[in-house]
């Protein structure tokens, strides 16, 4: 049965992205600070269909695992707008459901990636994503507001965060506005690494 998951990097002070996000300033310009551990891994560059990376280690296996378990994706319009101009063709190799007010026909890419533009809320996107996932997991890709919507609706089963050893001081926090009484939370895994700390949590709706 599909789980609803997210997998995100944050700073020590809880920021998911920097200030002034947009297509010309993806992630508010802080990707290099939050995701340095990931950029070092050959598995990351392979997944985005580019050459790069310095090593194939345990962190690479974590990257491969989350892609392997995911059968469909849900993301917000801002994340889509930032990525549309730079993402490789067939990057996701799965159906992607974009939450938006924009009316737009599906964007069918060469390969197995199709972007669908959903105008009637997270439950509609989830129903469609569950069908596409075919028993694999549904990943809430981002941004922070989209993840918060799913958390506050009591829909998240598990999440993985990667805490970078950096303070950003300002930006977009991942857990702003979260209903603190929605879940019982269990730590499933703590994995240390040179450039981050990986934490996996199980969420059980009360």
Automatic annotation (TrEMBL):
GO terms for biological process: riboflavin biosynthetic process. The lineage of its organism: Bacteria, Pseudomonadati, Bacteroidota, Flavobacteriia, Flavobacteriales. It comes from the Bacteria. It comes from Arenibacter palladensis. This is Dihydrofolate reductase. It holds the Pfam family RibD_C. Residues 3-182 form the Bacterial bifunctional deaminase-reductase C-terminal domain. One of its GO terms (molecular function) is 5-amino-6-(5-phosphoribosylamino)uracil reductase activity.
């Amino acid at each position: 049965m599909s789980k609803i998951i997210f997998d995100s990097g944050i700073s020590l002070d809880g920021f998911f992205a920097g200030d002034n996000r947009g297509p010309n300033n993806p992630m508010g310009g802080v990707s290099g600070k939050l995701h340095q551990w990931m950029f070092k891994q050959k598995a990351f560059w392979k997944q985005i269909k580019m050459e790069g990376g310095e090593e194939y280690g345990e962190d690479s296996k974590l990257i491969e695992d989350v892609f392997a378990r995911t059968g469909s994706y849900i993301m917000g319009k801002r994340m889509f707008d930032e990525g549309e101009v730079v993402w490789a063709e067939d990057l996701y190799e799965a159906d992607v459901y974009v939450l938006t007010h924009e009316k737009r026909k599906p964007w069918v890419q060469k390969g197995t990636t199709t972007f669908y533009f959903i105008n009637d809320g997270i439950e509609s996107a989830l129903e469609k994503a569950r069908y596409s996932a075919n028993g694999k997991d549904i990943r809430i890709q981002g941004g922070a507001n989209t993840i918060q919507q799913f958390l506050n609706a009591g829909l998240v089963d598990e999440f993985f965060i990667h805490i970078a050893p950096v303070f950003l001081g300002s930006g977009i926090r991942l857990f702003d506005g979260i209903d603190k009484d929605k879940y019982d939370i269990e730590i499933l895994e703590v994995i240390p690494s040179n450039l981050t700390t990986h934490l996996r949590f199980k969420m059980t709706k009360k």
